[in-house]
Amino acid sequence: MRLKLPVTCLILEIILIILFGTLVQYNYETDASEWHNQTSSDYENDFYYRYASFQDVHVMIFIGFGFLMTFLQRYGFSSVGFNFLIAAFALQWATLMQGFFHGFHGGKIHVGVESMINADFCTGAVLISFGAVLGKTSPVQLLIMAMFEVTLFAVNEYVVLSVLGAKDAGGSMTIHTFGAYFGLMVTRVLYRPNLDKSKHRNSSVYHSDLFAMIGTLYLWMFWPSFNSAVTAHGDDQHRTAMNTYYSLAACTLSSYAMSAITAHDGKLDMVHIQNAALAGGVAVGTAGEMMLTPFGSMIVGFLAGTISVLGYKYLSPVLEDKLKIQDTCGINNLHGMPGILGAIVGAVTAATATMEIYGKGMEDVFPLVADGTFTASDQAIRQAISLAVTLGIALLGGLIVGFILKLPLFGAPPDTICFEDSIYWEVPGEEPSHEEQLTVVRTAETEKLNN
Amino acid sequence: MRLKLPVTCLILEIILIILFGTLVQYNYETDASEWHNQTSSDYENDFYYRYASFQDVHVMIFIGFGFLMTFLQRYGFSSVGFNFLIAAFALQWATLMQGFFHGFHGGKIHVGVESMINADFCTGAVLISFGAVLGKTSPVQLLIMAMFEVTLFAVNEYVVLSVLGAKDAGGSMTIHTFGAYFGLMVTRVLYRPNLDKSKHRNSSVYHSDLFAMIGTLYLWMFWPSFNSAVTAHGDDQHRTAMNTYYSLAACTLSSYAMSAITAHDGKLDMVHIQNAALAGGVAVGTAGEMMLTPFGSMIVGFLAGTISVLGYKYLSPVLEDKLKIQDTCGINNLHGMPGILGAIVGAVTAATATMEIYGKGMEDVFPLVADGTFTASDQAIRQAISLAVTLGIALLGGLIVGFILKLPLFGAPPDTICFEDSIYWEVPGEEPSHEEQLTVVRTAETEKLNN
Amino acid sequence: MRLKLPVTCLILEIILIILFGTLVQYNYETDASEWHNQTSSDYENDFYYRYASFQDVHVMIFIGFGFLMTFLQRYGFSSVGFNFLIAAFALQWATLMQGFFHGFHGGKIHVGVESMINADFCTGAVLISFGAVLGKTSPVQLLIMAMFEVTLFAVNEYVVLSVLGAKDAGGSMTIHTFGAYFGLMVTRVLYRPNLDKSKHRNSSVYHSDLFAMIGTLYLWMFWPSFNSAVTAHGDDQHRTAMNTYYSLAACTLSSYAMSAITAHDGKLDMVHIQNAALAGGVAVGTAGEMMLTPFGSMIVGFLAGTISVLGYKYLSPVLEDKLKIQDTCGINNLHGMPGILGAIVGAVTAATATMEIYGKGMEDVFPLVADGTFTASDQAIRQAISLAVTLGIALLGGLIVGFILKLPLFGAPPDTICFEDSIYWEVPGEEPSHEEQLTVVRTAETEKLNN
């Protein structure tokens, strides 16, 4: 056991380095010679259009997802630490996998800020799945899961965006629906009938809920950047960010309302606030770049928050009891159902696209409609098929990967010590004892008197 | 009681959605058809001038204000959670109210990144007022307060900026002075003679002070973006950010100095560091875009930090004892007095504006001086009148809204359980018990031995 | 003692204000008159190329360094609070010192966003040194150290960049190597043979390690902005950010691997994760802007993480026992050795520069090679000499400043109360007692029943 994690990390990283050495090149915007060979001004370098958004996305991946999962009382190191590890691995692997499918030029993968954003996006899907198995999987299992999931993500993304021609800039389908149903299937396969032996640790304490709110708020604040990070320059990025902003604001109010109304005593539940308030970002991941209008965005956000809280309250217990799906973070409620809602909203919004509404902007939003390949209805159908494809690949992939992760060689924790940092980390105590604090203060006072 | 919060949230959000559906439209920079109808390059879209600043402001509103208020030992969920709720509501309502007064085109409110920033700004004023009543008001009271305060904010902003022609890009007057004196008047009206029954909870613990420092530092770091977010493109944004940076740095040193010098034993007080060190940002909110110079900015920051600490130390107790103003966060010291200082500095700096100093840049900073409508002295007088108007509307508005909030139907907490999360939230325990931790570790060791 | 800190702060700030009044001016991009006198478009103002990077750097300085050091159980206020104080002082002083050496125009220092970034960079070096003496120095000592270190930093930077013509955009040499060896020499001179009297406080608790992870992650996420903040516009900024991104990702995997492999029981150590995972950013500080390729960046990051963990595990105890270097945060492992590695990588990468690889981009990366002043080998030699010069100035400077700090008038804490907040701060208790919590809840329930 002692060597499994380091050996896995070292082998994976060495493979990555070799493949990068063989396959990866600067694109023309990061290559000193090529950029200076052309006539664009420096301010037209894509860096200035997308880097600020990239950094926001980066914060969502490492702080947002990492701290959102620190709500568990004794799993903070693992939540933020394994999130860090698998994200650092996944973004490298994603660069290669996504490069194979849509960044290949003359046998080389060309990289720049857009590939960095896409790698972070793919990583996001892995971290969503992580939420379902949180506390019940070893870091080696997580790295193996990440390796397979990134690969399947790239396949699904290729089919949805390149083969089917669907639009999904913020990833309602490719990121959220995919990550959620993949993770739910994995956790189903890894079902633990005796998980209640660790039940007392599967809950929060006061401070861990505050740490989790750091994650929630960064996800919430930067979601407009997430959805707009890879949309077309100009009005598209601008509109997508704004639609997401309004969707999230409306979602927050419906989440608070539903949280209080479904509680027997009217008290708010931190689980809902930490999670459901984000569903509005998920649900405009597909349609955010379209002419959804602030009005439409707010309706979508309102519905997403409502569905999400209801899911946490009524559906999650049923999934666990009847379908044996132990979903630690409730990713079905935050990413799964809102992702499906987002896909449907995307299809409906695409169906209503007209030249009157989009003008020449149609080329950016629906290029295949603009050039006459599709009608708006065709586009809508492609969007709907993409949802089905995504669900299919996610569920099938999760099934297979779940069984791979069951192999005993990856070292899953026993049922009695799930949700517990101390099996993976050197863990210090909780607090200096009260007596020591008093001693300390008294010592300090005495010293001062002596001076 | 159980239904008041959800019903309020749902009604408000439904009204917002209906009004957005009726009144709100994309502006020409977010509309696919309109943006592509004109000849600007994509990099001229206002998104690229302002979106990074918007995100910084957004972090200040949700993380900055939210975590700054987590200093209370038992009110962290409410601080960060109600901050989240009322901000999400206020930014939607502000979009409408500000739109009525200065974004109306042919019966429609046009929205884009600048309206998003302005909505966040208006939200900031509400959150300042929240600081005065923190721990003593129910979330329903806060939503009602936000609704009225946003409306009055928009009226005052319209009078100051559009009618009087004053400049106030960072909102020393419109945001900080307004939010502070509105909040102080509300808390005066809501005076609780028996608040000392909750006194033991109106203080910090070690970790809550560290959480609060997250809020402080984000406010401090991003204040240059706040003050420059809506100034004119080019040198104006650049200069405003830099002036604010220097003002804050100087303010930090004077805050530390005054905190130690006013303590009986020379020890620093976290309350001063968390709050007074920010006063430098408030105090250059008006003059930051002017040719204040780094030198001038540092003097202003130095004074603001000094005044602020002295206010916390000597003025706040007097306000509470003599004027019955119970100001939980000391907003008079962080936003009130530094806001007034900022307004005065703005007026003085405007009075000294000459064509020699500003050149053609006068058109950006003082357009009404540049086109000959005003002299620099006229501008200064307008600035001074704006301060008086702001104080008048804030105090009168706070008075009326305070009485509205006193109506028993909004469910204020009793005097004995102020500053306490558990009446609004499902609150978990503080820490896993020491015994349980030991058990856990022992179990882990045993399991390992058995493997 | 009571007056030393405030008097020091006030004197320093007043001197700063006077010097700023005498010497500092807006540069042409922040001056209203000058900017409007020229024909550039607003989007060409350097603000839009660098301000987002500046803000990321700013977050690294105040949140990143500040929270990274909160890992100590009883020194969180001082870690984040003194970091705040000395950074606010150092950035002002650095503006002057760096201005003297390379921003002087007609007797005036011209300031804008680039000087702000450079001031923050210089501040970073001071905060690195702070890490070595953390817990063992008074704030007055720290301010005095900052004053001298900033001055020497500016001298060294001038010699390295301007006299020798070396390149070091991300500061592997000028920031990390300099800050580390300066700090190590200071802590050597301040050696405390009886420091084990405070040993029980020189460690973390569970929550303090989570706070420290906030610092770690912000440093990790924004390091691409740090290294690219002052490189040339266009491909250079773009490439530097990307190289850093890949270096850090590879570094994270090698850090986790080495942490687990060097532990007797295979458990991960938070100290390594918090620190070593960042070494990849340090080690591409010089070569990041060069055509290092993602492949090269990943190799460098991999090595940096490995070296850093090995340093924490095996070298730090030796340095403390044999060389009497008490390095609280292990800055030799995070900044020292990876900084030297970065300098070497920079020299090697420079040696291999050809016109074929760089094309016209050579003018940005190696202007003195492009114009024929140097060959690539000359450049490499200049890079190597710069490392030696940096080490020399840092060690000699640290020696002298260490002895200055030993003067009794700056009030160092006694050996028995190092790593302890309560001698500088009013410190509240750790947690509300369990009994009080129960009382509170019971009161709440009773009140509700009575309503």
Report what the structure shows:
- The structure is a homotrimer of 451-residue chains.
- Chain A is 69% helix and 2% strand.
- With 451 residues, the first copy, chain A, is mainly alpha-helical.
- In chain A, helix 1 packs parallel to helix 4 (76-102) and helix 6 packs antiparallel against helix 7 (172-189).
- At the B-C interface, helix 3, helix 8, helix 9, helix 12 and helix 14 of B face helix 1, strand 1, helix 2, helix 3 and helix 4 of C.
- Chains A, B, C: It is found in: Cell membrane.
- Chains A, B, C: The chain crosses the membrane at residues 7-28, 48-72, 84-104, 116-135, 142-161, 173-191, 203-223, 298-315, 384-405.
- Chains A, B, C: One of its GO terms (cellular component) is plasma membrane.
Proportion in helices of chain A: 55-70%
The name of the CATH superfamily of chain A reads Ammonium transporter AmtB like domains
The fraction of residues assigned to DSSP E strands of chain A is under 5%
Give me the Rg of chain A, rounded.
23 Å
SSE pattern of chain A: HEHHHEEHHHHHHHHHHHHHH
- What is the second-level CATH architecture of chain A? Orthogonal Bundle
Query: Class of chain A, according to the CATH hierarchy?
Result: Mainly Alpha
Number of strands of chain A: 3
Strand order of the largest sheet of chain A: 1-3-2
What would the CATH topology of chain A be?
Ammonium transporter fold
Oligomeric nature of the chains: homotrimer
Whole-Å distance between the termini of chain A?
54 Å
Q: Can you count the helices of chain A?
A: 18
Name the chain pair whose interface involves the most residues: A-B, 85 and 80 residues
How many domains comprise the coordinates of chain A? 1
Q: Quick check: average pLDDT of chain A?
A: 94
**Mind summarizing the main beta sheet of chain A?**
3 strands, mixed
| SSE-based structural type of chain A | mainly alpha
How would the global form of chain A be characterised?
Answer: globular
Q: Residue ranges of chain A: pLDDT <50 for 5 or more in a row?
A: none
